[in-house]
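Subject: for your reference before the review

Hello V.,

The reviewers asked for a structural picture of the protein, and I figured it would be easier to keep everything in one thread rather than splitting it across files. Below is the amino acid sequence we used in the manuscript, unchanged from the supplementary table.
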Amino acid sequence: MPFRATGGAAVITASDRSAAGEREDASGSAVAERLGVLGLEVERMVVADDRGRIEATLIAAATRHRLVVTTGGTGLTPRDVTPQATLAVVDYEVPGLAELMRAEGRRHTPMAALSRAVVGVRGGSLIVNLPGSPKAALESLEALLPVLPHALETLAGPFDHGAARAAGREDLPLTEPDGSEAGSASGRDVADR
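And here is what came back from the structure prediction:
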């Protein structure tokens, strides 16, 4: 089943050095490439670690895209302000998705527990904070793949769970271009438990 997110996706990198052109945006590139493989058109942006700029960029991106993914700025330094900016613009949080990403990260490193990444909804858009390292960003994104299509379809609303079950598309899995399912099967029906 193809990815059904309408409006494509935005990938926003929060990094002082990338915004200044001093460092390649490896995380944003990796995340955009992965989303592109899944069939999404991706708009990329790079902003400095400035809360006001991040907030403005999130608001603008959420008006154009159903999925807004950030990378960077989720750590413990004073310049890591992506979670604060995200919380300032979302209508509500989706803590289970942030917990899912941290749980996956902890399988690879105990340092994942230091992530302050949040996930929330603004209007009909899902905003997801990913870590700044390419490896951690992709691991976090992969953790979300089994539930992301259902979340986006639900936000696109109205969503009738009974009709989805009857149509055989209750969990709306992401698929690779070859038709195989992306991500793991774990967590697929979590929302209905």
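For the response letter, the relevant points are probably these. The radius of gyration is 16 Å. The chain has one domain: 9-184.

Happy to draft the paragraph if you're swamped.

O.
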